[in-house]
C-alpha cells in the first residue's frame, strides 16, 4: 500500500535494532548456515523499512525472507530474533492495512511457517506448535488493530474540533453582523426622526420639499422595518427577538454587576461617563469584555478579575486579567476565537496568554474602525 507516510527515525530505527539483535544472536549461537541466516536477517530488516508506505509488499518480503532461514540449515528453534521480525510484520499488517485485509497476508505467512515445520524441522510437531506460533503473532496483530482504531478516532476527533472551531467563527461573524445591523437600525431610526423634524423647518417651495421629505421618511421607515424583520429572522430565541438596543461601554457596569451576582469579583476601571465611541467599536468592546469575564468566571483560580478600559482619539484598549493555576480548566478556546474574529473584523490587535500566573487578554480597537 502506498501513500501512508514518509520514512521516519522509527521506520529505520526498529529494523536496525532487530538486525543488530539478529546478528548478535547468530554470532553467539553460530547455527548451521550462519552466513545465510545473517544475510536473510539483514535483508528482512531492510524490507521492514517501508512498511508504512508499502505495507503488504514489505510484510510479504520480510516474512518470506525470515521463514526461508530454516531452509539454509538453521533449525526453527535455533534463533529467536526472527520472531521479532514476524511480530513487526503482524503489527504492520494490522496497523496500516485497512479493515482486516492484513489477515490474508498473515495467513500466507502462516502457510510458509507451517511448511517450515513440515519439511525442515526434524522434530516431532503437534498442535501445541500452532498455539505457540499464535501466541507470538496474535498479540502484535491485536495491538496493531487497537492502534489503528485509536488513530482513526483521534483523526475524527481532530476533524470535529476543526468543524467546531469553524462553526464558532461563523457564529461570531453572525453575531457581529447582528450587532452592526442593530447600529444600522438605530441610525435609520434617527434619520426618520430628523427628516420629520426638517419638514417643519423648510419653507422654500414647501410642497415639493414636503413631498421629497415624505419620500425620504417613507424610505427610512421601510429600511427600518426591513432591518427589524432581518434582525427578527437571524436572532436566536434568547435574544428577546432583537428588541434590545445594541450594548456598549455605557452598559458595562450592568454587565459587571451580573457577573458579581454570579460570584465573580470584578475590578472595573472605566471612565465615568463612558467614552463615546463609534457604534460598531462600542458594541465590540462590550462583547470582548463580556467574553473575558465569562472565561474568568469559568476558569479563574480565585474568582477575581480585573478589567481596564482606556481610550484616546485613535484607539480604545481593553485589558482583562484573572489568576490561573495548574488546576484551572483551559476551556475549548472558542471564546477566544470569537474575540479574535471580532478584533480582526475591526482591524484591531489582540494578545492573550498566561504571564506570571495570570491569564491576560489585551485587545486594541481603532476608533475609526467603522
Automatic annotation (TrEMBL):
UniProt xrefs under Pfam families: HisKA_3
Keyword match Kinase: yes
Keywords: ATP-binding, Kinase, Membrane, Nucleotide-binding, Phosphoprotein, Transferase, Transmembrane, Transmembrane helix, Two-component regulatory system
Residues annotated as domain Signal transduction histidine kinase subgroup 3 dimerisation and phosphoacceptor: 172-237
Transmembrane segments: 12-28, 34-49, 56-73, 101-119
An example molecular function term from Gene Ontology annotations: kinase activity
Enzyme Commission number(s) of this protein: 2.7.13.3
Top EC group: transferase
Catalytic reaction equation(s): ATP + protein L-histidine = ADP + protein N-phospho-L-histidine
Keyword Kinase: yes
SUPFAM superfamilies associated with the record: ATPase domain of HSP90 chaperone/DNA topoisomerase II/histidine kinase (SSF55874)
Name of the protein this chain belongs to: histidine kinase
Amino acid at each position: 500500500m502506498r501513500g501512508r507516510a514518509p520514512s521516519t527515525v522509527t521506520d529505520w530505527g526498529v529494523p536496525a535494532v532487530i538486525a543488530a539483535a539478529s546478528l548478535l544472536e547468530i554470532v553467539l549461537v553460530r547455527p548451521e548456515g550462519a552466513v545465510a541466516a545473517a544475510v536473510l536477517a539483514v535483508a528482512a530488516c531492510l524490507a521492514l523499512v517501508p512498511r508504512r508506505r508499502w505495507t503488504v509488499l514489505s510484510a510479504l518480503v520480510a516474512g518470506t525472507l525470515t521463514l526461508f532461514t530454516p531452509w539454509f540449515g538453521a533449525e526453527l528453534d535455533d534463533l529467536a530474533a526472527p520472531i521479532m521480525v514476524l511480530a513487526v510484520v503482524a503489527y504492520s499488517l494490522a496497523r496500516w492495512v485497512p479493515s482486516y485485509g492484513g489477515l490474508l497476508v498473515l495467513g500466507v505467512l502462516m502457510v510458509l511457517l507451517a511448511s517450515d515445520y513440515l519439511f525442515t524441522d526434524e522434530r516431532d510437531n503437534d498442535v501445541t506448535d500452532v498455539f505457540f506460533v499464535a501466541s507470538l503473532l496474535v498479540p502484535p496483530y491485536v495491538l496493531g488493530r487497537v492502534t489503528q482504531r485509536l488513530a482513526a478516532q483521534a483523526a475524527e476527533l481532530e476533524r470535529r474540533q476543526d468543524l467546531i472551531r469553524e462553526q464558532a467563527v461563523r457564529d461570531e461573524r453572525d453575531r457581529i453582523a447582528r450587532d452592526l445591523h442593530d447600529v444600522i437600525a438605530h441610525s435609520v431610526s434617527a434619520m426618520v426622526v430628523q427628516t420629520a423634524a426638517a419638514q417643519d423647518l423648510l419653507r422654500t417651495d414647501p410642497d415639493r420639499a414636503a413631498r421629497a421629505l415624505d419620500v425620504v421618511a417613507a424610505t427610512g421607515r421601510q429600511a427600518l422595518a426591513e432591518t427589524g424583520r432581518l434582525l427578527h429572522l437571524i436572532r436566536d430565541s434568547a435574544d428577546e427577538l432583537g428588541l434590545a438596543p445594541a450594548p456598549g461601554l455605557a452598559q458595562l457596569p450592568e454587565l459587571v454587576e451580573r457577573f458579581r451576582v454570579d460570584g465573580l469579583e470584578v475590578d472595573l476601571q472605566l471612565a465615568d461617563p463612558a467614552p463615546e465611541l463609534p457604534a460598531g467599536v462600542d458594541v465590540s468592546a462590550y462583547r470582548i469584555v463580556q467574553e473575558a469575564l465569562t472565561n474568568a468566571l469559568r476558569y479563574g483560580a480565585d474568582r477575581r478579575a480585573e478589567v481596564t478600559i482606556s481610550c484616546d482619539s485613535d484607539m480604545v484598549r481593553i485589558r482583562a486579567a484573572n489568576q490561573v493555576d495548574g488546576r484551572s480548566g483551559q476551556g475549548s478556546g472558542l471564546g477566544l476565537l470569537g474575540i479574535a474574529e471580532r478584533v480582526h473584523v475591526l482591524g484591531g490587535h489582540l494578545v492573550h496568554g498566561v504571564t506570571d500566573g495570570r491569564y491576560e487578554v489585551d485587545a486594541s480597537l481603532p476608533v475609526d474602525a467603522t
